TrEMBL record:
GO terms for cellular component: mitochondrial outer membrane. PANTHER family: MITOCHONDRIAL IMPORT RECEPTOR SUBUNIT TOM9-2. This is Mitochondrial import receptor subunit TOM9-2-like. Keywords: Membrane, Mitochondrion, Mitochondrion outer membrane, Protein transport, Receptor, Translocation, Transmembrane, Transmembrane helix, Transport. The chain crosses the membrane at residues 65-82. InterPro entries: Tom22, Tom22_pln. Residues 1-30 are annotated as: Disordered. One of its GO terms (biological process) is intracellular protein transport.
Length: 109
């Protein structure tokens, strides 16, 4: 008995008869159904779907490019900046030592 109840499924009311619908009368629902099934609405939905697809692809590729640029910066540029800072500190230290010892700085005579 329980298996026979599962076989049938659910039947929905027929939407083609505007008078049998429960919401808003036959005239209002007919206009709304005609508008929602029109070619302009279908084209608009298709355009919105295409725009969404392109936007998702663009964001995904932009994210990949940002990841590549960020990791490249961390691997190549940050060590270079650190090394340049060390070199500048070493030059300043040499200038300080030279001024304490009384010798003229390198490059001046």
């Amino acid at each position: 008995m329980a298996s026979s109840a599962r076989k049938g499924g659910v039947s929905l009311p027929d939407k083609r008869n505007p008078k049998s619908g429960g919401g808003g009368g036959g005239f209002g629902s007919s206009i709304i159904s005609r508008i929602s099934e029109s070619q302009i609405v279908a084209t608009g939905k298709r355009a919105a779907g295409d725009a969404t697809f392109v936007t998702k692809k663009l964001l995904k590729s932009t994210g990949k490019a940002a990841w590549i640029a960020g990791t490249t910066f961390l691997v190549l540029v940050v060590p270079l900046i650190i090394e340049m800072d060390r070199e500048q500190q070493l030059n300043e230290l040499e200038l300080q030592q030279a001024s304490l010892l009384g010798t003229p700085p390198v490059g001046q005579k």
